Amino acid sequence: xxxxxxxxxxxxxxxxxxxxxxxxxxxxxxxxxxxxxxxxxxxxxxxxxxxxxxxxxxxxxxxxxxxxxxxxxxxxxxxxxxxxxxxxxxxxxxxxxxxxxxxxxxxxxxxxxxxxxxxxxxxxxx
Length: 126
What we know:
Structural class: mainly alpha
Order of helices and strands: HHHHH
Low-confidence stretches: none
Radius of gyration: 17 Å
Number of helices: 5
Helix content: 55-70%
Shape: elongated
């Protein structure tokens, strides 16, 4: 009986960890925001953002495939992750170099402009 309880507790811990990792992986949103807002960046920077989005997206899709129950958590993860992703995009844009002008903070929407379907769509880049 104690072993079964321990197994259930371990399972809950694994699900909680997977939920946290999924939230972190939604940081792809920061690069999607930059791709849609920052127009005067060199192609090399854009390519880096595209790769980052693709990699984070692939990890989220893997998480869902590995633990299908996580799909129900995605709307919550998105709501929780977006403010951090927005802040990250704003912060990173302030370090703009190569003569780029950082967009004003108000150009970054307060609510996520991307749907879950868009975020999970391997062909969507803003």
